[in-house]
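Notes from the 1:1 (GR / supervisor)

We went over the backlog. Supervisor wanted to see one worked example end to end before approving the batch request, so GR pasted a single chain during the call. The sequence is below; no edits were made to it. Supervisor asked that the structure be written out right there so they could see what the output format looks like.
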Amino acid sequence: MATAYATDAAPQNPAEVSPSPGRLLRFASLVMPIAAVEAPLTTYVPPLYAAIFGFNLGTIGLIFLVARAWDALIDPAIGVLSDRTRTRWGRRRPWIVAGTAIFVVGTIGAFLPPRGAGAITLSAALFTLYLGYSMMTTPLAAWTGELSSQYHERTRITTYAMVMTALALLLALVLPSALAVRLAGHPSQQLAAMGAMVFLLLAITLPLGLGAVAEPPLPTGALPPLRVSETFAVVVRERLLLRVLASNWAVRLGQGVRTALFVFFVSVYMGRPTLAPALFLYQYLFGIAACPIWLAIGRRLGKARAAVAGELLQMAINCALLLVGPGGWPLLIALTTAQGLAQGSGNLMLRSIVADVSDAHRLETGHDRVGLFFSVFALSDKAAMAMAVGTALPLVGYLGFNPGHANSAAALFHLKAVFALGPALAHLVSAAIIRGFPLDETRHTEIRRALAARDAAGLVSDASRDRWLAQDSPQG
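Structure output shown during the call:
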């Protein structure tokens, strides 16, 4: 006969009523200041730092590599602590509020740097910014995953976040496009204006978003011991999660290489520096339009198959960039359009799958670790972006490309080759990893039924308990 023991039951909405579109839009708006700082930091800030402080590409790449590595390393700790937080305001909301304050301090340092700031000063500002960034993004992602337990409804909710992210990126790209003309030759003012936009979005979205939806009830039951080694072991043993992480890492690596080199490709290879922000903006316009399209594709094919289709499409688009010559604007615009329509496919589907994997884990172990799982998902995001910036810029520099000087035909070809083939290979790897993912809608429905039955009884069987204890033992 099964013996009952206390479980860390995940908070669920018993009625399973999804928030209204208006409330979801308000809640999803919380991602906007975060996204608005991400685009400038990866695309425009490195060239501006080069212009303002005279840093070479190797120094810039190192600064951002170290800062993003720090950002990635603190994510799991924030995820675990967020899961364990118990306040009358919920688990996630206090972290977002505290993270916002730290985020503001770091943003001031990064976008309004003092005159004569060196690499250490700028690194410290980025370290602070990314600490606040992680304290906001990881709990917010977990909260998003907790709003519904339904397979496709989770994709719908994630789509709202993707749309608001794309809108923020749109704003973050409109501003540089205007600044490139009006403040040409004044990189410090361009940098400050980008920071001002982030502050404005924070002031608008924080009060709107934090009160839009209620957090689910706090979990009941005793918390498992907090041990770093066991937390790491939980992630390593979760094979389905590792597949999602690896696939997402490849997606973000490809996107990061493309983003890091986009301005250089348009400005130097294509010879039109004032068009770089506008073309990047153009791409994200189609990214916004594509979110509902990929939601429909995911409903029809399933999340994993939709992700594979999107990644293979992006691979083909990036390979076709090799056909673009310095005067090949019609082809480049067509490929940029296609890239915009395809770019959100893997991001949307893989993020939605994380919550499904968390359900499977809770059924097996009796513990809710959705915050931890989303934190390591964010870690895969940031590790990939750090590697993209930290390797793509030094690589094209090693191959002879120098943005501040005249470049040979060979150096320009190498820039194009890395810009095209780096992302293409990464998207192919992502598709190969997630292909055949076993946690589909049918399997997830079975998991949710089992969880609902167990949560209603408040019991976990001896067999499940014994499996968990065996996994968590030092010998396991």
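Supervisor's comment: Confidence is low (pLDDT under 50) at residues 1-7, 9-15, 460-476.
Batch request approved.
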